[in-house]
Design goal:
- With 155 residues, the protein is α+β, with helices and mostly antiparallel strands.
- The protein has one domain (2-149): Gcn5-related N-acetyltransferase (GNAT) (Aminopeptidase, 3-Layer(aba) Sandwich), CATH 3.40.630.30.
- It has helices at residues 13-23, 32-40, 88-102, 116-124, and strands spanning 2-7, 44-51, 54-66, 69-79, 107-112, 128-133, 144-149.
- It has a seven-stranded mixed beta sheet, sandwiched between helices.
- It is globular.
- One of its GO terms (cellular component) is ribosome.
- Its EC number is 2.3.1.266.
């Protein structure tokens, strides 16, 4: 299986919304409109396209601030359950972090406190838990850790 990362396109958004429903049952999954809003606002989004398989994952990050004083926030990372455990989530995260490193920006994110695989992935990439947001995810009321990774200049 070959997977390539490419900028997320409008034609990918229907599949992203399908994956959201699959990945986040009991929560408020993003709609096509929500993904389109992210793209329209200039946020950095990428898709993981598998041959065969089509779009099997997506990820996005916002860049906040001004030159010399940026910070980034991971908005989402999702991988089709049939393709999890194959390094796609790691590749998506690394791509987002490369983008942040180009800006020497610290990176923040929220993750469910019970999502051990994601927490482990983030910790392996330099993130630390800096707080807890009670009842962050709705409608389930699940808690989230806020995690941060310091800015790193790109090489």
């Amino acid at each position: 299986m070959t997977v390539r990362l490419e900028p997320l396109r409008t034609e990918d958004l229907e599949r992203c919304a399908e994956l959201e429903k699959l990945l986040f049952p009991g929560e408020d999954p993003w709609s096509v409109r929500a993904f389109q809003f992210e793209l329209d606002n200039g946020n950095y989004y990428i898709g993981a396209h598998a041959d065969p398989g089509g779009l099997v994952g997506y990820a996005g990050i916002s860049e906040l601030g001004s030159p010399g004083n940026y910070e980034c926030e991971v908005h989402t990372i999702g991988v089709d359950p049939e393709f999890q455990g194959k390094g796609i989530g790691k590749a998506l995260l690394r791509d987002l972090l490369d983008r942040a490193d180009q800006l020497n920006a610290p990176v923040f994110l929220e993750v469910r406190t019970d999502n051990v695989p994601a927490i482990s992935l983030y910790e392996a990439h330099g993130f630390e838990r800096i707080g807890v947001r009670r009842r962050y995810y709705q409608p389930s009321g699940a808690d989230a850790y806020t995690m941060a990774r310091p800015g790193r200049p790109s090489e």
